[in-house]
Amino acid sequence: MRPYDIILKKRNGGKLSYDEIKFMVDGYVKGEVPDYQMAAFLMAIYFRHMDEEERAWLTEIMANSGDKIDLSSIPGVKIDKHSTGGVGDKTTLVVGPLVASLGIPVAKMSGRALGHTGGTIDKLESIPGFRTALSEEEFFRNVKEIGIAIVGQTANLVPADKKIYALRDATATVDEVSLIAASIMSKKLAGGADGYVLDVKVGSGAFMKTLEEARELATAMVGIAKAHGKKAVAVLTNMNVPLGRMVGNSLEVLEAIETLKGRGPQDFTELCLNLAAWMCHLAGLGSFEECIKLVEGSLKSGSGLEKFRQMVERQGGDPRVVDKPEDILPIAREVVEFRAWASGYVRAIDTEKIGLASNYLGAGRRTKEDTIDHSVGIEILKKVGDQVQEGEPLALLYVSSKSDVTQATKLLKESYTISETPPEPEPLILDVVR
């Protein structure tokens, strides 16, 4: 086999075999296929795409390129949750404990922030002492004994994806559905769960800007799961506004704890209950409607909050964060108000710019080497549809001495649109692909 022939075949619209895809992916990971030929291969896929079978093969080959987690020793049906990334998306911090409190084991590996979206691991690490790097033995023991553990991804999990994604990022081949779906689902397959609830974000703060694009990605990912004998549901959710009120690591942990106490924002609470119910449904606890009642009961009783406390304590964090989060979390004391320049209604928010503004304060990364400031972030006071008066605060900026407040404020001004008439309300849940 020669890379040239495989590239030519895909360039001309041909269907690749399992062995041809494996030859290219394995060869690239081993250094036998050079960057320039892999880049040409990715560009051929970008323009000619892959069918369902090719996607499933690519995902499997990438998943098998490194370590795989075997969760079979953990009793019960293991359901993972994945979000395609959004602003203010701290759902794992609420959904995981809710689901675990209902007896479904949560053995989760999560990622870090990059670009305008936050990372679950960075948020958890804002809790003093919380460890996201556990030994395999400790990881399994925590899931077996308390039902939940959330850790960072292992270094050798799907090395093919790490290497190929870096090349896609440098060659303008990131936004192709087969490549996106294989990247996400290869990590899910390697994680060892029995099924997946996929939160596919849509809108200005998401990678998928339109419902059509998001539905195509959701269908591709659910198809890959089905091809590998896994259960999957994709929930398409609105990211034209930040999720909840808080953006930034400690602030989002604070909001997650308040939500587990039953005092969370309506949109964030609704999404957490929805995703948790789908996880319970895939685990066999009943119909979706029955599972909604189960997770609502867990939230109301406080059992989800108690499960969060147990996880924090087991992973070395300060459990007092549950009772006095404002005292324990490192939240910046200096607060700058961002005020409305006109009266009217918030007609739109460019949510990606909210995420980028948070980064300029120090809450995110523009490169993988950047250090995160867990204390900074943005509190959204006015969201789409809210009425505002000139001079009234739209948002609060929690800042440190290193924050670029000028640039963050500039982005906030560009993000908000204020008009004389209110916009038509948009639903939070846009579609479900099963």
Automatic annotation (TrEMBL):
Its Gene Ontology cellular component terms are: cytosol
Per its record, what are the GO molecular function terms?
Answer: 1,4-alpha-oligoglucan phosphorylase activity; thymidine phosphorylase activity
- What does the annotation say about its assembly with partners? Homodimer.
Q: Which GO terms describe its biological process?
A: pyrimidine nucleobase metabolic process; pyrimidine nucleoside metabolic process
Keyword Cytoplasm annotated: no
Name a Pfam family for this protein.
PYNP_C
Cite the Gene3D superfamilies for this sequence: Nucleoside phosphorylase/phosphoribosyltransferase catalytic domain (3.40.1030.10), Pyrimidine nucleoside phosphorylase-like, C-terminal domain (3.90.1170.30), Transferase, Pyrimidine Nucleoside Phosphorylase, Chain C (1.20.970.10)
Cross-referenced SMART domains: PYNP_C
Which residues belong to the signal peptide in this entry?
Answer: none
Give the source species. Fervidobacterium thailandense
Query: What keywords were assigned to this record?
Result: Glycosyltransferase, Transferase
This protein's record includes keyword Transmembrane: no
- The name of this protein is Pyrimidine-nucleoside phosphorylase
Q: Which InterPro entries match?
A: Glycosyl_Trfase_fam3, Glycosyl_Trfase_fam3_N_dom, Glycosyl_Trfase_fam3_N_dom_sf, Nuc_phospho_transferase, PYNP-like_C_sf, PYNP_C, Pyrmidine_PPas_bac/euk, Pyrmidine_PPase_CS
